[in-house]
Design goal:
The protein is of the alpha/beta class. The protein has a domain of about 60 residues: Signal recognition particle alu RNA binding heterodimer, srp9/1. The protein is about 35% helix and about 30% strand. It contains two helices and five strands, in the order H-E-H-E-E-E-E. A five-stranded mixed beta sheet has the order 1-4-3-2-5, covered by helices on one side. Strand 3 and strand 4 form a beta hairpin. The radius of gyration is 19 Å and the shape is elongated.
Length: about 100
Amino acid sequence: MAYIAGSAGATAAVAAATMIAQAIKASGAIVRVEPNDFVSILSKIDNPLLVLAVGGFPKKKYQYLTGYKGLVFFTKSVDPLELASGTELITAKKIWTPS
């Protein structure tokens, strides 16, 4: 019986790893950059669309996501970024990126 339980556990682990790999493929390429590089990318976009999520405890963390030339750029900052006027902002409860 112990062998069957171990086999079932291994099967579950393989299934979980497969689901994680599929989630990463579905999310596409996410490029993590430093906040100053993110602001530089935003400056190249006319009327940028930005997703923002604020979270963290005990200190707030600001997460930002935007698309540029077919790639998705992501950054985290302990301080809010200075955004140009005309930036369209969508507030999300959470931004999840694969690790």
